[in-house]
Design brief:
The structure holds 2 protein chains of 2 kinds. Chain A is of the alpha+beta class. Chain A is 28% helix and 25% strand. In chain A, helix 14 runs parallel beside helix 15 (563-589) and helix 17 crosses helix 18 (754-769). Chain B has 3 domains: 7-51, Uridine Diphospho-n-acetylenolpyruvylglucosamine Reductase, domain 2 (2-Layer Sandwich), CATH 3.30.43; 60-173, Uridine Diphospho-n-acetylenolpyruvylglucosamine Reductase, domain 3; 180-284, 2-Layer Sandwich (Enolase-like, domain 1), CATH 3.30.390. In chain B, the strands form 4 sheets. Chain B has a 5-stranded antiparallel beta sheet with strand order 4-5-10-6-7. Chain B has a 4-stranded antiparallel beta sheet with strand order 11-12-13-14. In chain B, strands 1-3-2 form a 3-stranded parallel beta sheet, with helices on one face. In chain B, a hairpin with a 2-residue loop joins strand 6 (135-140) and strand 7 (143-148). Chain B is globular. Chain B starts with 6 loop residues before the first strand and ends with a helix. The chains are: A alpha+beta, B alpha+beta. The interface between A and B is medium-sized, with 33 and 22 residues. Bound molecules: flavin-adenine dinucleotide. Residues 29-37, 54, 74, 101-102, 106, 110-111, 113-115, 117-118, 123-125, 161, 166-167, 191, 193 of chain B line the site of flavin-adenine dinucleotide. Flavin-adenine dinucleotide (FAD) is lined by residues 29-37, 54, 74, 101-102, 106, 110-111, 113-115, 117-118, 123-125, 161, 166-167, 191, 193 of chain B.
Chain lengths: 801, 290
């Protein structure tokens, strides 16, 4: 061991796990040096644009592209007829359904892709798209999912006629997709029938959209001479894209080169494969020229995958002291015209069965019915691990409903029901094995920091004077890090992830991963994990992702999975490097491996501190002086198949004041305590929390994609779709507890999605709590002022004395 | 969100611009700050064959006092209005309203002339101009006319402005000391248009309201003037009950369009609420100045 200060300095220099390393990504981005798909410009590149349906449900009687084709600069107008011979007019979805690439005889949602125009530039393409004449016969449409399974409901998917066995269950109606049941129905029903108290609430989680800064797009370049396809694409999971493209196109997978360059935000929207990607590829193959397709914001909001749209009915059974005995949930899931959910294949409702939350609920039953409607397809997780936000929302709302019913304080009822630290690993009634947690500690810390008792006193005084103030709590448990390949796959590929490290002779390194950063700071944090494992400063470790030719196969970045999976692979690949380095060090120092101990960045002979070899020395020796029988070089690969999910948790508190006369909700305070296990980089965590809470705020206060009765999407532009600015965004206070995951190599759990998942219920609970004294138990999101005012007005609370 | 192709000209003088407008036979659009026009072109709601950029015409800029009026060049940007010491002293309502318009980026380019000429009832200047009883100078190759803001707005995107006319100047009064004023705008977020807004300009004699103008933003096809409410309050000492009655009268003239910001009922009530708040604040200010 060196002297303590010297030791400390070396640790500092290493920049490993736990240090507040500044984001390495930003220097490029803030100088405008990013390289996004739309920055790709190739010689001879053409541009594509879609003709989209103005109707939600209509038969296509004819498509006349002659005027468009006559426009100078137009190269092609593709329709389903052109794709049919290639069998590409339909494509498989990740959810086991099929989706029309270009509308095949019929459109099923407004803005559906009908034809793809390819022209010399984006402007000509747009002009030509306007000139394609499509004759429609408008059909009756289904926009209300509650009407979707009416006997006389219009049939949305005649292509499935007669196929009464779906990918996940039997189908009981032409607009039924699946029924998914989890838990013990009989035991749950029994618990309800015997319970002292039961509560029930209908809770809708509205349709919304992740809407990242960068919309979706692709550049496809087919090299006819070599039969190779290169695809730059806005993807969170480029390796999966390569596999799917190879399968669809019939090209050898080795001849398909998929690159996700810089990705400007994903939030789940960039997991799936979109018709635009397929059309760009087909157009490039058939025209022999590179083709770019970049969607605009309206297309993005209207046709690229939405989030949520769960119509839930929650029920809790409890005793008079508020101890929960059972949970029952039914969900009517509005999937739009195709089931394009991006969940692991066997999970049609994602991990919605995490809906017992942080509570020790012995019996539960969940039933989800997925239905088709004449709306855009999607159902991706909007910064949420596979329907976990909906799950967390229903339980965090329902426990408040129960508290109100029993007159028990909302913090107290949570403390009474939490799973206790000694119960971990905890097997939930709906089948998950929670790895670790200390929920009560987190909540207590928050209550104290915010003077919860004082807030409740203030609320009582305010109410007496006619003011509306609400206090919202959310004590959520997430399930992330999908996932063990025995239960999680995407189109048959197991959901492991990977890391490949190469240490260069002079002691720097490059590491490549199967994940793909879209703002999560992988360059910064992966290097920290590796630095701690291999003793090379994080500054000297390059991180690369996104190029399927160079990066090892992985399932990508979403569902807060990167740290739990690829982060684990990094630690394990690092340990392989270190194991080899130990052999080399022993050889160099002429001692046995057992005589060595690891010290930050070197191996030291036990008890002889000046007998040591640094990783820099060892890296050099790896290329010229390895022990006999050992291969030269210093490389390692790890494919990590996680044994379990990880279960981050948190306790959030939100305080709102409501203007009685306008319905405006003002967030006065937001305190967020997160437990993501081992903390790799506190400032990156804070950044993720701030971003996720802001999304949660946006969702709770205004994000919605409503449709009218005719299936017209209302408000598909940023004029209407609510993206808050810094002015409206609340100030956040962050805090943490650390309960490491016992099964993860470094104990980390993943944090990217916690703030969104937990934040939404905190905002909701705060708004509804403001009305609890007048008997209100639920108000659907979003809490835009007009909706809140409706409630105030109905209750007469907006009257002036 | 890709506009069709168009030609572009950038004249250096008003007369050149007017000549171009005259020649173009209604096929041209004047481009000021572009923050309303360009979005409309991107949605292909507007498809002008020619854009006449009036941003390089020095005579269309500037703020100066002429007698008891302030003359503002149509191409004066919102930020220039915000920074004007003259306006701050002589017509402080205007910079107060500007603060509610869009965000700093939009205000850097958006112009008072464009905001007024666009004819969008959601814009904030039109109701303000009616409350101030401003005048607009309209020029064409044939000559010049001066019209009252009160008469200018005919319908949504429909004003007295002829296709060959240019709005060159806006004339607002110097507000006499003791004038009470307020602009109350309810909006979802920074950079958003009003759910409803109310503008009030008034003067008191003793406790009595001598003169009052009440106008409303985004609750009808044009900016609205709540004349019955004005009549009710004129000559009276305004108390809570009168404020309430005036708000009710203001609500009666509203006919807002429903959108995601609210349905008709909500927007009408908010027009009433903004009216209450604006009257109260204007009175406080009138009193504070004495
Ligand atoms: C994000 C965003 C938020 C906004 N929020 C608000 C808001 O809260 N409140 C608000 O009031 N406005 C708002 N606006 C609109 C903004 O203020 C515009 O700048 C303004 O409406 C138009 O002014 P302009 O100079 O940009 O005109 P342009 O867009 O260039 O022109 C608008 C129209 O007026 C015509 N025109 C312009 N100048 C003249 C002239 N001198 N003579 C004749 N015709 C002319 C043009 O031909 C065109 O038809 C917002 C805009 C954006 C993009």
């Amino acid at each position: 061991m060196g002297i303590p200060t010297e030791h400390y300095t070396r640790k500092e220099k290493l920049g490993g796990v736990g240090c507040e390393r500044r984001r390495k990504e930003d220097a490029r981005f803030i100088q405008g040096k990013g390289n996004y798909v739309d920055d790709i410009k190739l010689p001879g590149m053409l541009h594509g644009d879609f003709v989209r349906s103005p109707y939600a449900h209509a038969r296509i009687k004819s498509i006349d592209a002659s005027a468009a084709l006559a426009l100078p600069g137009v190269h092609a107008v593709l329709t389903a007829k052109d794709l049919k011979p290639l069998n590409l007019h339909w494509m498989p979805t990740l959810a086991g359904d099929v989706q029309a690439v270009l509308a095949d005889e019929k459109v099923g949602f407004q803005y559906q892709e009908v034809a793809f125009v390819v022209a010399d530039d984006r402007y000509i393409a747009a002009d030509a798209a306007d000139m394609v004449k499509v004759e429609y016969e408008v059909l009756p449409c289904v926009s209300d999912p509650h009407r979707a399974m009416d006997p006389d409901a219009p049939e949305i998917r005649p292509d499935l006629a007669g196929k009464m066995q779906g990918a996940h269950s039997a189908r009981k109606h032409h607009n039924h997709i699946f029924t998914w049941e989890v838990g013990d129905k009989a035991a749950t029903d029994l618990a309800f029938s015997m319970a002292e108290v039961t509560v029930k609430e209908k809770i809708w989680y509205p349709r919304n959209h992740g809407s990242p800064l960068e919309t979706c797009g692709a550049v496809a370049a087919f090299d006819k001479a070599n039969g190779e396809l290169k695809l730059w694409v806005t993807s969170q999971a480029p390796h999966v894209v390569r596999t799917v493209v190879a399968q669809l196109s019939g090209l050898d997978e080795a001849r398909v080169h998929v690159v996700a360059p810089d990705v400007g935000g994903g939030f789940g929207v960039k997991v799936g494969i979109y018709p635009g990607y397929v059309c760009a590829i087909v157009a490039s193959i058939s025209l022999g020229r590179p083709v770019k397709w970049i969607e605009d914001r309206v297309e993005h909001l209207a046709a690229t995958a939405f989030g949520r749209d769960y119509h839930m009915t929650g029920e809790l059974a409890a005793d008079k002291d508020g101890r929960i005995k059972a949970l029952r949930v039914h969900v009517l899931a509005d999937h739009g015209a195709f089931d394009s959910c991006a969940d692991p294949s066997k999970w049609p409702a994602g991990f919605f069965n995490i809906c017992t939350g942080s509570y020790d609920i012995k019996v539960a039953y969940v039933c989800v019915d997925g239905v088709y409607t004449n709306k855009a397809p999607g159902g991706v997780s909007y910064r949420c691990s596979f329907r976990v936000t909906e799950a967390s929302y229903i339980i965090e709302r329902m426990i408040d409903v129960l508290a109100q019913r029993l007159g028990i304080d909302k913090a107290e009822i949570r403390l009474r029901n939490f799973i206790k630290p000694e119960q971990f690993p905890y097997m939930s009634a709906l089948g998950w094995e929670y790895d670790s947690g200390n929920y009560a500690e987190g909540l207590r810390k928050v209550l104290e920091a915010c003077d919860y008792a004082g807030l409740r006193r203030e609320q009582a005084e305010k109410r007496a004077r006619g003011y509306l103030m609400g206090i919202g709590l959310s004590t959520f448990t997430e399930i992330v890090g999908a996932g063990p390949t025995k239960i999680c796959d995407i189109l048959g590929v197991g959901m492991f992830d990977s890391c490949e490290i190469r240490v260069h002779p002079t002691g720097s390194a490059i590491a490549r991963f199967g994940t793909k950063d879209q703002g999560q700071s992988h360059r910064t944090t992966y290097a920290q994990i590796l630095a701690t494992e291999i003793g090379i400063p994080s500054e000297n470790i390059m991180i690369e992702e996104g190029d399927t030719d160079t990066a090892p196969y992985g399932l990508g970045t979403y569902g807060s999975r990167s740290t739990p999976t690829a982060g684990a692979a990094a630690a394990r690949a690092g340990r392989k490097i270190r194991a080899k380095a130990r052999k080399i060090a022993a050889h160099l120092l002429e001692v046995s491996e057992d005589d060595l101990e690891w010290d930050v960045d070197r191996f030291v002979v036990k008890g002889v501190p000046d007998q040591m070899k640094t990783m820099k020395d060892i890296a050099w020796a790896a290329y010229n002086n390895v022990p006999p029988g050992l291969e030269p070089g210093l490389e390692a690969v790890d494919y990590y198949d996680p044994p379990n999910m990880t279960y981050p948790s948190g306790a959030y508190l939100c305080v709102v004041d409501i203007d009685r006369y306008t319905g405006e909700v003002k967030v006065r305070r937001f305190y967020a305590l997160d437990d993501c296990g081992t903390r790799i980089n506190p400032i990156i965590i804070d950044g993720q929390i701030h971003g996720g809470l802001t999304e949660a705020f946006a969702v709770a206060m205004g994000q919605e994609l409503p449709y009218d009765k005719e299936g017209n999407l209302l408000g598909a532009s940023l004029l209407d779709y609510f993206i808050p600015t810094a002015v409206e965004t609340p100030k956040y206070e962050t805090d943490f507890t650390v309960t490491p995951s016992p099964h993860h190599p470094i104990g980390a759990k993943g944090v990217g999605e916690s703030p969104h998942v937990g934040g939404v219920s905190a905002f909701s609970n705060a708004v509804i709590d403001a009305f609890s004294h007048v008997g209100v138990t639920h108000i659907d999101m979003p809490y835009k002022s007009c909706n809140v005012w409706k409630m105030l007005h109905a209750l007469g609370l907006d009257k002036r004395e | 969100m890709i506009p069709p192709s168009f030609s572009y000209r950038a004249p250096a003088t008003v007369s050149e611009a007017l000549a171009l407008l005259n020649e173009s036979d209604g096929e041209a659009k004047v481009l000021a700050g572009g923050h309303s026009l360009l979005p409309m072109m991107k949605f292909r709601f507007a498809e002008p064959a020619l854009l006449i950029d009036i941003g390089r015409i020095p005579e269309l800029k500037g703020i100066r006092q002429v007698g008891n009026r302030i003359h503002i060049g149509a191409m004066t940007t919102e930020n220039e209005l915000l920074e004007s010491a003259l306006l701050k002293e002589k017509c402080p309502l205007l910079p107060e309203v500007v603060r509610w318009i869009a965000d700093p980026q939009v205000r850097n380019r958006g112009t008072i002339g464009g905001d007024i000429a666009h004819g969008d009832p959601a814009n904030d200047h039109p109701a303000t101009m009616r409350a101030l009883e401003a005048e607009f100078v309209l020029k064409s190759a044939d000559g010049e006319r001066v019209v009252a803001a009160d008469d200018f707005y005919l319908g949504t995107y429909y004003t007295l402005l002829e296709a060959n006319e240019l709005l060159t100047e806006i004339r607002v009064p110097v507000l006499p000391p003791g004038t009470g004023y307020a602009y109350k705008k309810l909006k979802r977020k920074t950079g958003d248009f009003a759910i409803a807004a109310a503008c009030v300009v008034l003067s008191l004699t003793g406790d009595k309201c001598e003169r009052i103008a009440i106008t409303l933003t985004n609750v009808g096809p044009t900016p609205l003037r709540a004349e019955t409410a004005e009549k009710l309050l004129t000559g009276k000492a305004i108390d809570d009950q009168l404020v309430e009655q005036a708000a009710q009268l203001a609500m009666e003239i509203c006919d807002p369009a429903e959108d995601l910001r609210g349905d008709k009922e909500y927007k009408i009530h908010m027009a009433g609420e903004m009216t209450r708040r604006a009257i109260r604040e204007a009175i406080d200010r009138a009193r504070g100045r004495k």
